[in-house]
Amino acid sequence: MWGVFSLGGFIAAFLLPVLIYVNNIAYPLGLWPTTSKDPTTLLVADQLLGSVFVLVTIGGSLFHGVFRFQTTLPELGMHG
User: Fold this and answer.
1) CA distances (Å), 22 to each of 27, 45, 55, in order?
2) Which of 8, 15, 27, 53 could form a cystine bridge with 63, CB 3.0-4.6 A?
3) CA dihedral 40, 42, 46, 49 (to 10 degrees)
4) CA 74, 64, 7: angle at the middle one, nearest 5?
5) Taking the mean position of all CA atoms in its chain, how far away is CA 45?
6) pTM exceeds 0.70
7) What span, in angstroms and rounded, lies between the C-alpha atoms of 43 and 66?
């Protein structure tokens, strides 16, 4: 279980900033070349690989956060 937790931490630490940079900084400022005709769509969600990247990034980050939250609750004195 700790390996999956570690993978979620890796995703949250490395892939989430890349996703934020590409979609929210580079694409609107024209720093990232694109062939999309609709400027309102997500840059990486135009293709299947980009959609999988978004799914893995968000899912891994959420899993990491939930697992960390579960392990922190007993330390705060809240036993389930």
Assistant:
1) 6, 11, 15
2) 8
3) 180
4) 130
5) 13
6) no
7) 28
Please report, as a single letter, which amino acid is at residue 47: Q
Instruction: Count CA atoms closer than 13 A to 21's CA, side-chain side.
Output: 7
- Residues 9-57: tens digit of each pLDDT: 888 888 888 888 887 888 778 787 766 666 556 566 667 877 888 888 8
Which amino acid would we find at residue 37?
A: K
Assigned token pair, 49? 């690989």
